[in-house]
Amino acid sequence: MKFKRLISVGAVAGLLSLAGCGGGDIKIVEGDEVVTPPPPPPPSGFSCPDFATQIEAIGSFSNVCQVTGTLTADATFTSNALWVLSGRVAVGNDRADSSTLTIEAGTTVIGRSGDDFLVVRRGSKIEASGTQSAPILMTSFEDITDAPTAIGQWGGLVLLGNAPSNLCDTADAGDDADATELANCSVNAEGDAGLYGGDDPNDNSGTLRYVIVKQAGKALGSGDELNGISFAGVGDATTVDYIQVHENLDDGVEFFGGTVNVKHVVLTGNGDDSFDWSFGWTGKAQYVYVQHNDAKAHRGFELDNNEDFPAATPLTNPAVSNITIVGSTAIDEGSEGILLRNGTAGRLHNVLVTGPAGMGECLEVNGGEAQANAEAGNLIMTHSVIACDNGENFKGNATAALTTENWFLGQAGNSAYSDSSALNLDVNGYQPLAGSPLLGAGTDASAIDAWFDATNYIGAFDGTNDWTEGWAVGVRGGFPANVQNAFQKGLATDVSSEFPQITDKPVYRLAANTTFTADVTFTNDAHWILNGRTAVGNDRADNTTLYVQQGTTIIGETGDDFLVARRGSKLEAIGTQGAPIVMTSIQDVTGQETGIGQWGGLVLLGNAPSNLCDTGDAGDDADATELANCSISAEGDAGLYGGDNPTDNSGSLKYVVVKHAGKKLSSGNELNGISFAGVGSETMVDYIQVHENLDDGVEFFGGTVNVRHVVLTGNGDDSFDWSFGWTGKAQFVYVQHNDNIAHRAFELDNNEDFPAATPLTNPIVSNVTIVGSNATDEGSEGVLLRNGTAGRLHNFVVTGPAGMGECLEVNGTEAQANAEAGNLIMTHSVIACENGENFKGDATSTQTVETWFLAQAGNSALDNVEALNLLADGYTPRAGSTLLGTGVDASDVYDDNWFKSTDYIGAFDGNTNWMDGWTVAVNTGIPASVTSADAQSLATDQSANYPAITDKPVYVLNTDVVFTTDVKLTSDKHWVLKGRTAVGNDKADNATLYIEPGTTLIGESGDDFLVARRGSKIEALGSASAPINMTSIQDMTGQATGIGQWGGLVLLGNAPSNLCDTADAGFDADETELANCSINAEGDAGLYGGNDPEDNSGTLRYVVVKYAGKALGSGDELNGISFAGVGSNTTVDYIQVHENLDDGVEFFGGSVNVRHVVLTGNGDDSFDWSFGWTGRAQYVLVKHNDTKAHRGFELDNNEHFPLSTPLTNPVVANITIIGSTAIDEGSEGVLLRNGTAGSLHNLIITGPAGMGECLEINGTEAQDNAQAGNLVMTHSVVACENGENFKGNATATQTTEEWFMGQTGNSVAAGMADVITGFETVTDAAALDMDTVDSWFDSTDFIGAVKAGDDWTAGWVTVGLE
């Protein structure tokens, strides 16, 4: 990670000299003039805390705090400053002055030399909780000042704990550290860090989460070094997850005894061993990635018990699983794989070791004691693969009778390869591709120990999810360090002066019609302009690879400018979600008007078969001879393609976006966005987009290439086109037409001139979403199957508006014959167009297309889009959509693990939007006709009044504005609420407020709030990478934040509430009362209630509400989000309320359902229901802070009339409540009272010793419901450390504890560490599969809100979970 340099390195050095001087003037000599500079002014509005000294700016940091000595009281390193370590900075003294150092997410800590390091001593803690998007960085001065970085530029991080080590043995008889020795243990840590060791295996040194340590390390003497992170006697109550050590002088991480467990560990470019254990470590590790570089490396894993006393106890005996080690050609000490020696025991599973020819041995067992452990079965390695290219997979003997190779291969699930290519890895060298022998071949370590996540693969990666992405640095993406870029090779010239609009990077234009004949790169430190036909290699000659670095932009200026990779050569274009590779037009980069056809496009030419290889002899078959000699001219004058190699490899396209391309040379001779011509199956294509291409989005001319995660938006002709014998596979394809120009979403042929030609076009395609339009040019259509194509289509949804053309058509005798013979099938699909033309024509000689379609398994047809139950974006299925749970699993049907397992129709599962963060112009659900608030004169630009906000203009909405027509708030501005901002009037002037992803709404006082009234809607569709934020002006201007700084968000609906009862006889709100209901909402927001349980108030998705709330009177407050009479057709998913004055979310009756709710640091109750709420909730995470909190869940029916109906009776599941020591009203868990009913499942209620009661049922009516079985709680765990898990009675005959323990699946645990790590579930307590209760719920196999290893808060929740 680099930071923009704002001052020169020399200037920084001067400042540092000033900082280190005890007094006197510093004089700078500039030529003959002597200048005495004035002292720098202190940074405005910021001061360092008392434990630190404020010093001058460094690099891009104006707020800089220097820390020295020992912290003897709790302290916080905040993210709004740079923290400079000076010497040994210690947290606490040894078992004295116990303190906690908290480091906020996104904070940077630096050292200037190897003497500067951070140590956490016994009895103290570090709470360093970064996030994926805001990791904590510990690095060198050089790194943040843009000076050259290297190993050993500062000290590192050391944790010292009280857990056992076999060094505690004091050398009495034997090598055992006995109980007395452990109790009195004090071992000197390396690096002069302090003492460690003890008799507490459950010791807690705090949390390291998303922490990166770079360029650290110091060697004091042989065997006495500072590692990147040293874990010395650290206990298993310590949380370590998502850590990286990059380029450390000595080891990456080293374990000196202890019991700490670690997950998601990245170790890159370290100078000695990457992962080192010794002296009695008995912890666990899962997901460890080791990457050596070619400059300096030693062992991936160096594993000892005790080098002086190999039989010492406690014996080193960890369990580790899912490890990937990628060696190198480093020649210093030499890159090696795993060395097991000096008496270590251990259980190693799912380990992959691989590396190049220049690497040293890959697996070695050394020493009599370790070999004895191997022989006795105390040292095992199973379900692992050794695949090094060095001819030395194994070295020496593992036991007295077995070589290391024989020992390894004799254990379950192990295999060895002499060629790493057999692993079928991605070009990045660590991620397995579909069909890799690593996938499905692992053992499930969770069956060995519940701490482990369940896995079935070998190595640290599952082939789909790269858990290093978005936070780690220096991880190879397949981009070589030793290949020059095109400018360095003299193949491009600097033309930056021609483009004054482009200021971020230099602009290099390639020489006209360049052909790369040697490996070359396009790097992301420049923009690259194509000049004519830019070719990678000649046809089957001068075979070359063009590597394109993540985040690179490639530009075309005319339709003649295009990029082609020819047969035998490769394009390795591997972007990332956060840094995709973009190929676009000069107009796009310079801010001009964009459109289709502004440059050429991208072409891949391969050696795989095509039925055009047939040379016209008898029959339409391209035989073996014709395929071997095949050379077909590709469209667009790109070159030749075709051959007899179905597994040909043209490289990789991953996270690549092609925009505004295409050229038409003549009819049927065009440049598409991406053309795949004879491209083979070894080519990797995943996460690609073509946007606004002149002709087709992607077209397959024969070949066997497989594609996944394809986005095709606004293309001028067909979006997805196949022909000429394509036999590949596709999964997850999204097609979105626009209203300007479009043709078919899928145009599917075999051969238009010879429809029976072979090889026959016969792909398998699954999980496709097609959204048509009203385009009137050629007309937006759905799927056309014609000209003899075969194929197997599954899980398609085709939908579109009234102006769309036909949605499914089978055309031509040969295609119809394939349909009749069962060679062309379409199953588990839905056609739902509003044009009255779902189907056109006949599919077979006896069936219409409609009859043929509906007769196949799992198919259905609808005449309106609404029946699909989609979000406003038009493609995401809501909970309960007919698309969910009705699909077929293609991986099962074809026994092909290339396909991802799915059970839904369409490209999206309703939870995860795989397009998020890298695509452009995907529908947000905002109609093009809706204008913004400023365009409607409802807001004015007042940026001048907000000088502290500089990233975007600031528009202030009119005071107490009421939106009476549809309006949008856009992400290119900040929007300030003034007073009560209302969407619609009550059941009048119905309007919809659309809020774009990434938009920020600001309140300045408690009077500023947003409300959607009955009959109106808010459509707030944020995304994980661009959530919608509603926050305070203090938050936006860098001031102190806190509860109650603005009002909040209110939704008012027409759904029932028991407050609708008008106090006639009884407590029932009858039909008449519901129909006429109008209840005053709290906070003077308006009226709510009615008789429509399916009312729709819009969508809240990825919405964060922070620092809100206002108390008008007792029981009359603005909550973070108030749901008042909100109906079940409202969608609420992925919301957070942080530090609200009153409740986080409160439900006043209604039937709305909510998922993925995060409630952090709220001042009163976090989740509050009452007055007849009958909705559902799943995945609710509550975390109290120690300042102010009340109940996690406060659950009522009606406090005045507890028997009122409709009865509060929700179903909620997968809840985690983490209490605190707040002493205001007191942090408590769950209170059920005032007549509530409900079904609660899969809860974790936990908290520290200072927390209040964790479960209570209060009041006769609630207790009667508990006794009658109308109030139930199952499959839950209470684990509070306060001695008050339960309070009072639950029924007339049972205490709350007895009632709880008497229900299915419930249990009690001793404390927080037994159930959660951080906020993720670690208990193996049995869960109730909620899908069996109600299909709205996801199927679950865990209790609590967040399954270990599946953090759904990552990326969009940035505060409150530290």
UniProtKB/TrEMBL annotation:
SMART domains: PbH1. InterPro entries: PbH1, Pectin_lyas_fold, Pectin_lyase_fold/virulence. The lineage of its organism: Bacteria, Pseudomonadati, Pseudomonadota, Gammaproteobacteria, Oceanospirillales. This is Lipoprotein.
